[in-house]
Design a protein that fits this description.
Layout: E1 2-3, H1 9-29, E2 32-33, E3 44-45, E4 59-60, E5 67-68, E6 75-76, E7 79-80, E8 92-93, H2 96-110, H3 123-128, H4 135-140, H5 142-151, H6 162-166, H7 174-196, H8 200-210, H9 213-217, H10 227-234, H11 244-256, H12 263-269, H13 274-283, H14 287-298, H15 304-308
Parallel strand pairs: 1-3
Antiparallel strand pairs: 2-4, 5-8, 6-7
Helix pairs in contact: 1-2, 2-5, 7-11, 7-13, 8-14
Length: about 300
């Protein structure tokens, strides 16, 4: 049973998608593959009304946690059976079948009336030839786009697990998003102070962070911020407005010294957590995904920072 939250449209949709993902996570934990995920099988209900969901096709996984991908290829209310379309259809696949279908549902709910693989008559061909079109979703939410792109990967093993879907930064609240950016900034500054600035790993991180900076924060991020904020931060230290590392440092410093902001900005933001993060999210919607993907590509899985934020 899915209950919609009373907040902004994107927030409400995100809440519903998290509930759906949590349900699939629970099924997969029980070694059950749903195999029939589609919008028609999702029941939306008012929080005070309970309804029984109709039974759906499912398969319990054997001890090796996999099932033969031998489903039929018939169209399922415009949702093809992905188990018959996966790479190497004779191989053993498993929960990744549900993740692909779930990714298509995510897209359809975030971009109503659309499907990442086009109209019903071209979907099977586009899936077979790996031709998704997710540009509209990227314009709506960079974080959602990052998640859906991973969920609809052509190769089953490249898709995240249901647990990883639930832990993706698309579902993070403002407080966790801000904490991640502040901790990431602290990590970079700590490595720099420990004399690692000339080391190869540190330089690799710096090059990766500043790569494509203009597409993430613009050529000069200070021109995007309120002039009052820029004037305020320049009183205390000098920042390079072309550097993502310096922008992270600014966000961290304003979180810790929120009371030093001009009164108008403090009142507009409301708090040094949700309000501050929402402000920077609006200004730089690509920043968090950019930083997270740097961590994903450069931090080992056993790194304490990667483990804290489920960077996989």
């Amino acid at each position: 049973m899915i209950y919609a939250a009373s907040c902004s449209a994107l927030c409400a949709t995100r809440n519903v998608l998290l509930q759906i993902s949590s349900g699939i996570k629970h099924l997969h934990h029980l070694r059950i593959v749903h195999r029939d995920l589609k919008p028609a099988n999702i029941l939306l209900a008012d929080a005070k009304v309970g309804k029984r969901k109709r039974s759906v096709m499912a398969l319990r996984l054997p001890s090796d946690a996999s099932v033969r991908s031998d489903g039929s290829s018939a169209l399922n209310e415009s949702y093809p059976d992905i188990s018959s379309l996966d790479v190497n259809p004779n191989a053993r696949t498993s929960r990744s079948v549900d993740i692909f279908s779930l990714g298509c549902i995510f897209y359809s709910m975030l971009i109503p009336g659309s499907h990442p693989f086009g109209e019903w008559y071209e979907r099977e061909a586009n899936i077979m030839h790996n031709r998704p079109n997710t540009r509209a979703l990227k314009e709506l939410s960079v974080d959602a786009h990052d998640l859906v792109q991973r969920m609809i990967q052509r190769i089953p093993s490249s898709r995240p697990t249901a647990k990883q879907v639930c832990e993706h930064h698309f579902f993070w609240n403002a407080q966790r998003r801000l904490l991640f950016l502040c901790d990431f900034s602290d990590r970079l500054e700590t490595e720099g102070m420990m004399g690692e600035e000339s080391s190869s790993p540190f330089l690799t991180k710096m090059l990766a962070i500043e790569s494509n900076a203009s597409s993430v924060v613009g050529t000069a991020w200070d021109s995007t911020l309120d002039s009052e904020l820029v004037n305020n931060v320049q009183r205390f230290r000098t920042y390079d407005p072309s550097s993502i590392r310096d922008l992270l440092r600014l966000i961290r410093n304003k979180h810790h010294h929120f009371d030093e902001l001009p009164e108008r900005l403090r009142l507009e933001m409301g708090s040094n957590t949700d309000g501050l993060m929402n402000y920077f999210d609006r200004k730089f919607p690509k920043l968090l995904a950019h930083c997270f993907n740097i961590c994903r590509s450069l931090f080992p899985l056993n790194d304490s920072f990667a483990m804290k934020y489920d960077v996989t």
